[in-house]
Amino acid sequence: MTAVMVSGPEGSAPEESVPAPAEAHNAFAGQGAVLLDIGGDVGALVVAMPPEMTGLEVEIRPAGWVAQEGVHVHHPHVAVVVRPTPEGPVPSLVYPAVTGGEYELVVIGDESERRPVVVEGGVVATTAWI
Question: Does domain 2-128 correspond to CATH entry 1.20.58?
Answer without folding.
Answer: no
